[in-house]
User: Fold this.
Amino acid sequence: MRAVFRILNRLIVVPAFKAGLGWIISNPIAGNIMVLGITGRKTGRMRYTPVSYARRGKMIYCYRGREMQGQWYLNLLANPRVEVILPDGRFSGLGEEVIDSKERVDAMRLLMQASGLSSSLNGFDPSKASDEVVAEMIQGIAVIRIILD
Assistant:
């Protein structure tokens, strides 16, 4: 299944965002989707990958799932300067892992609420769940903050 998503991302999602058509893909059903441009830690080449996101002012949050290998995540840790392609434009910024537990919970709550129909897969309502419930659900998930320039 991962191979199918890789092909769809490479042939449809990333080109659509680069052409300014991200608003078609990022919608209330699919959730907030952006394309993240990160320099490869081994190749030095720019790599693009779609990820879910939530925005709070000049900050963009995204995450690496528990079961994901997350090459984009490892690349971001090695090269934190990123390109962010949102449905409303292209930006650059600096990414880093969120360490503060309160910010992690708040960011994941935003991300879950912005995830479209898949938000129902969490097994709880993120807007009503306690911080403790959200914190337990996100153990092992890396939360990333990108501060836009």
Notes: The two ends are 35 Å apart (CA to CA).
